[in-house]
Amino acid sequence: MSLHNLKRSFVAMFLGLMGDAAWADYKLNIPVGPDETSRLIYDFHMYAIWICVGIAVVVFGVMFYSIINHRKSRHPVPATFHENTLLEVVWTIIPVMILIGIAIPATKALIKIEDTSDSDMTIKVVGYQWKWLYEYPDEGIKFFSSLDAASNEARQIGSGIDPSTVPNYLLNVDNALVVPVNKKIRFQITSADVIHAWWVPAFGWKKDAIPGFMNAAWVKIEKPGVYRGQCAELCGRDHGYMPIVVKAVTEEEYRAWVARWKQEHAVAASAEWSMEQAMKRGKAAYNTHCASCHQADGSGIPGTFPALAGSAVVTGDLDQNLEIVLEGKSAMPAFGADANISDEDLAAIVTYIRNSFGNDTGDLVKPEDIADIR
What we know:
With 374 residues, this protein is an alpha+beta fold. Helix content is 41%, strand content 16%. It folds into 3 domains: 36-114, Helix Hairpins, CATH 1.10.287; 121-261, Cupredoxins -  blue copper proteins (Immunoglobulin-like, Sandwich); 270-373, Cytochrome c-like domain (Cytochrome Bc1 Complex, Chain D, domain 2), CATH 1.10.760. It is built from 11 helices and 10 strands. A 5-stranded mixed sheet has the order 3-2-1-5-8. A 5-stranded mixed sheet has the order 4-10-9-6-7. It is elongated, with a radius of gyration of 28 Å. The protein starts with a helix and ends with a helix.
């Protein structure tokens, strides 16, 4: 048996049988991420590991030396000495010095990891069941990030879709968090409902998102790329479908993305609001806020969430439909009370559901209609 196969067999005894995909990412050590914080954590981890290795060598060395050289066959009459003040002082001082040698760099690392001062930009992160809200206060940008449509469709019972055929299954989103490299980014993390946890393993840390409390963290990504994570707190029924995707780009690409985002969303503030624009925006907003319950095709979940396709409410009186969307009903939240969902998105969602899934009311709901009701 090769050394590689022996290693796999040994670890499998403790971890259970693992698929080839899991083994492809199997590593013995923690990863080194693309930022200063993860590298700081890795360096301290290795520093502490080598101290532990040194302690193990000394302790086991003395132990095996004593076992071999003081066995009964060599010393049939045991020694009768008892206590040694100098030895007791030494083996008390040495551990204390080791602890101090670990505590000092650990404290320095923790202070640096928690120091969010002198940041170049701030991003607010708000956890929702089961999506993330990202807000760039300096740019006036705010959007939700949810599980992507392909993963959401494949995860449904009876979908008939093999999850292995979906790229980054359950780890992809509709709107990634875009950030520039080589900038110190401060994250302000909180929650709008239950406790969540924002966790991207490559960054070396995670922070709880707690309702009514603001946690802070920072990252300075040095290498462009896509970094994935998940909510690391059991936050409810769909906890496993709340991924995080951070896309790190160059400063030029980031500025271009900001300009493009503002241009794409500027139409909502203009007097123009066509059926085509509302349907396009409504589909994206529906997949973000509604598809997890009512399904991407509007079929709902029998006995739990009603179907929108052919619904008497959706195809009936518009005012009644708007009332339910804005004020909620039963398990459905009151979207009108959520200031983080814009009038434009709500208008687009109602327009979309009344003209999709076989529904064809021809109704076009405008943002000012939502504003008037709110």
